[in-house]
Design a protein that fits this description.
Structural class: alpha/beta
CATH topology of the largest domain: Rossmann fold
CATH class of the largest domain: Alpha Beta
Low-confidence stretches: none
Order of helices and strands: EHHEEHEHHEHEHEH
Distance between the termini: 67 Å
Strand order of the largest sheet: 5-4-6-7
């Protein structure tokens, strides 16, 4: 039951106030990390007093890194990497995110870039990493890296990019990966 005089915010408004995604709030509510109530219609609302107490715990909640990766220099010449970055920057602006770092790679993966992102997450400088696909982090182990970032306090936010050229380069990437693995097995 709601307390007299308490103000309750919808999930959307609470998420905006805290600078987190609605799904993050749902997870926190489910785990008991943040208090909420369920309305008679089944919607979840959050007490403003709880949100005010919780906000200082979310340091840099709107700070994000952008990670863009493509397969080869030919895709660089076709400006696919820059288009990917521009798409993610535009999304970040629409969402009200503060872009802390833009990391760009060419190739199957780059250990230095991943270490840079991990250090940003560990230091609490970012709360999200924006990518156009989970496999941008790593072609083979994206779920593992996603879990590592989650443990460090940063979530991976996939922003679907509807680019036919990007889809074709992803197919080429898979072929190149398989060829690389087969060569190493010899």
């Amino acid at each position: 039951m709601s307390e007299v005089g308490e103000v309750y915010l919808s999930t959307q408004k609470a998420a905006k106030l805290l600078g987190v995604h609605r799904m993050t709030l749902y997870r926190w509510a489910r785990s008991g990390k943040i208090q909420c109530i369920r309305t008679p219609t089944g919607r979840i609302h959050f007490p403003l007093s709880e949100l005010v107490k919780f906000k200082p715990k979310i340091k840099n909640s709107n700070d994000v890194a952008i990670y863009a990766r493509i397969i080869d220099e030919e895709a660089v010449r076709r400006r696919l990497l820059e288009e990917q970055v521009a798409f993610l920057k535009n999304y970040a602006r629409k969402m009200g995110y503060n872009i802390v770092e833009v990391v760009k790679d060419v190739g199957l993966s780059n250990e230095k870039s991943l270490v840079k992102l991990l250090e940003l997450a560990k230091a609490g400088k970012i709360r999200k990493i924006l990518v156009v696909s989970k496999d941008r982090l790593h072609t083979i182990f994206p779920e593992f890296l996603e879990e590592v970032f989650r443990i460090l306090g940063a979530e991976i936010e996939v922003v679907d990019w509807d680019s036919e050229e990007f889809k074709r380069t992803r197919e080429l990437e898979i072929v190149e990966l398989v060829q690389t693995l087969l060569l190493k097995m010899k």
